[in-house]
Amino acid sequence: MLELRLVQGSLLKKVLESIKDLVNDANFDCSATGFSLQAMDSSHVALVALLLRSEGFEHYRCDRNISMGMNLGNMSKMLKCAGNDDIITIKADDGSDTGLCGFEEGFLIGDVVVEVLDQDKIADFEMKLMDIDSEHLGIPEAEYQAIVRMPSAEFARICKDLSSIGDTVVISVTKEGVKFSTQGDIGTANIVCRQNTTVDKPEEATVIEMQQPVSLTFALRYMNSFTKATPLSNTVTISLSTELPVVVEYKIAEMGYIRFYLAPKIEEDDEETKPQV
Amino acid sequence: MLELRLVQGSLLKKVLESIKDLVNDANFDCSATGFSLQAMDSSHVALVALLLRSEGFEHYRCDRNISMGMNLGNMSKMLKCAGNDDIITIKADDGSDTGLCGFEEGFLIGDVVVEVLDQDKIADFEMKLMDIDSEHLGIPEAEYQAIVRMPSAEFARICKDLSSIGDTVVISVTKEGVKFSTQGDIGTANIVCRQNTTVDKPEEATVIEMQQPVSLTFALRYMNSFTKATPLSNTVTISLSTELPVVVEYKIAEMGYIRFYLAPKIEEDDEETKPQV
Amino acid sequence: MLELRLVQGSLLKKVLESIKDLVNDANFDCSATGFSLQAMDSSHVALVALLLRSEGFEHYRCDRNISMGMNLGNMSKMLKCAGNDDIITIKADDGSDTGLCGFEEGFLIGDVVVEVLDQDKIADFEMKLMDIDSEHLGIPEAEYQAIVRMPSAEFARICKDLSSIGDTVVISVTKEGVKFSTQGDIGTANIVCRQNTTVDKPEEATVIEMQQPVSLTFALRYMNSFTKATPLSNTVTISLSTELPVVVEYKIAEMGYIRFYLAPKIEEDDEETKPQV
């Protein structure tokens, strides 16, 4: 028996919105410690990892580990039926019954029920689960050469602006700031955000932790896709190392995080000395 | 001579917006008692009936009954030129003159003039009338097994939400509440609105008058079309009987109503015992 | 060396927005007195003339006259990257260096750099200039038979409304007011704005200066395109004479203007006596 209740149902809607365009089908893994997901995008270039810890839910019961394969677009459609102030409950039964049961009587293996509770309205949505093959990648803890924390809306704006000019972004970090650059047919663009910790609100700060300067190139298409998670958090953390995929992380207050991993483009690793392609 | 004036011109705009997608061409019938319309949708499945009583107009003069055939899309385009606070006057002449006259001198049979009055702006729009064959159906007064009154925005939201999951809605009324259900490839959905009369504002109540429980199936496409009338009224009344078309009614304050009629889908009349198609 | 700085960067964004759909490529001419542009639309029917006087800029340096050929769509894309409160600097070098230099070291002939300054963010955009053939038309000062000044939003609304009914607008000016008329398949429309100078705010006035009544016909497509300049000014001035193109002018506060010129349609010059086409 699985039963999760979130008073702030809009959070679940935002989570689905932020990953459904990147990943079509994925397994949600539920255990006693929390609700998690790990999936590659359809072209196997980017990886998304989600964690919602059990303590963050108003009610969390998970008798044994289960993996629920879902089409994220369909799940998102169902969650859209919930208002932003509605309470959302997710239920799944791990019993052995094989007939299709109604909502009041019980749940099948292979079915998830989303229940939405308004003051005088109860809605329940029952969705067939899917059997999805997936291998869970171990993501090793790593030391990063540079970690940038900045306002998530600012990062989203920069990725959007640059993608009207070029296809890739070079992210270069020095002690003074982080530079986002692109180049396209119509010209070039450079946007520099200076380190700035003397701000009115902590979430407006741009903070740089740097072991050594780093400059890496990424596809803007993926960066723009990651920024769909912007509504989940006021800040974003970008962790960079020459030999590792970048990690773009949005913390989910008191519950967990959503992290996107993307490998840098190799041909532009050393753009100063190599000929451009 | 016909001359109608509405200070609250936005009301007329909303009426046109609510029916122009359902019905292309229709006759507006004007008599001493009011301004009315009755028309089938183009696939002859739904019926719309509109009444605006003469008392609701600031000025109402109709010397003899006339029927004005109009393309509702064109009429809507013309009314869109009026601001929401503008005064709208509709004029038509029933004289025998055959030449096309200007606005200042008079009007032809077969032409309707919409005049829009702002403080320092006068606009007039002259539209050719059409000759439309139509038979006026007598709609008998009927007793309904169940009548639900609920907030119109809530009903619109439910129809929109369900149509992202399925094509039809089963509306089931019991003493406790009204249930809207659908079923589609991605799963099923049930939304229950409980009877609730202890609300701050009367228009937020959900009130059920029931002779006997009823459960009927309708095409969501039409229901969604009816909800275009939502801006006309805070509440909607849904009248249901097993043998009759459902009536979805939006009252127009102090003037009349707009009513939509739709026959239930027969094959799902008794979904518990019959095999599903 | 050219260097212009505008604290109110949004103004430059609005200028580009108002002309980029009418003109694809154009030369911006910079001299000691100001920044100007004159260009025909791609079908050589309308002319746009822009002037931003040097006094209106916070910083203005132009050592010798230069002409910068730009694709206005690309320039607009780059300016969109500036926030509405950002400071925008435009730089171009008239030196003889031929290599492509970075932003910090200098600028090429044939490149323009747009620099955007936020508190903790600096962005620079470098765009290749184009070589555009253009002849500068002398526009003689003229006496107009009628000059109408009215709220720009009102004029935009009227052009938009009429274009849902017809393709051309007849603008007729008398001492009492200005009439905008159109005719289409679905009917006719006339909108009269009366002269009105007793308004709360001067920009809400409709003021008519008239030597003699005038009635001219124009393509609504172009009028609608001109009204994209509406965000630049609260009022618009329309200057009309029988033998001349109409001038639709939006003043840019304390800096200059944007003027659109359009020849009247001849076949309807004298609509009272000639047969309609």
Automatic annotation (TrEMBL), chains A, B, C:
Proliferating cell nuclear antigen PCNA C-terminal domain span: 138-265
Main location: nucleus
Keyword Nucleus found: yes
A GO BP annotation: leading strand elongation
Record carries keyword ATP-binding: no
Classification via SUPFAM superfamilies: DNA clamp
Keywords: DNA replication, DNA-binding, Nucleus
CDD domains: PCNA
GO molecular function terms attached to this record: DNA binding; DNA polymerase processivity factor activity
Location in or out of the cell: Nucleus
Pfam family, one: PCNA_C
Sequence ranges assigned to domain Proliferating cell nuclear antigen PCNA N-terminal in this UniProt record: 1-136
Gene Ontology cellular component annotations, sorted alphabetically: PCNA complex
Function in brief: This protein is an auxiliary protein of DNA polymerase delta and is involved in the control of eukaryotic DNA replication by increasing the polymerase's processivity during elongation of the leading strand.
Family statement drawn from the similarity comment of this UniProt entry: Belongs to the PCNA family.
PANTHER family assigned to the protein according to its UniProt record, in alphabetical order: PROLIFERATING CELL NUCLEAR ANTIGEN
Protein name: DNA sliding clamp PCNA
